[in-house]
Amino acid sequence: MLQANNESGLEHVKDLLKPGLTCCLLGSSGVGKTTLLNHLIGESVFRTKTVRKKDSKGRHTTTSRQLITLAGVKL
Ligand SMILES: Nc1nc2c(ncn2[C@@H]2O[C@H](COP(=O)(O)OP(=O)(O)O)[C@@H](O)[C@H]2O)c(=O)[nH]1
Ligand SMILES: [Mg+2]
Q1: Which element (helix H / strand E) includes 10?
Q2: CB of 38 closer than 6 A to ligand 1?
Q3: pTM for this one?
Q4: In Å, how far are 10, 12, 61, 75 from 15, measured between CA atoms?
């Protein structure tokens, strides 16, 4: 099982990524896509927000789509 906000399961995701492969992070707002991407990069490059208190739903934080090259990331 993957926990996007810590390193647990990260190796499994890294195993799916191969040089030259383009992958897409797809999911509802607040499920942890950006958090996962930041972990893959190894730094908090992209902004995340806490989930909304009253219903624990994610808040729209990432407002654009971007193709990220994981350059220098050991896969
Ligand atoms: N409990 C828990 N919270 C997480 C996990 N991954 C992300 N979050 C939190 O969920 C919120 C939304 O994450 P974010 O990466 O912005 O989601 P995105 O909308 O899919 O990009 C942030 O406050 C994260 O810290 C996880 O695996 N477990
Ligand atoms: Mg996001």
Answers
A1: helix 10-16
A2: no
A3: 0.82
A4: 9, 5, 27, 7
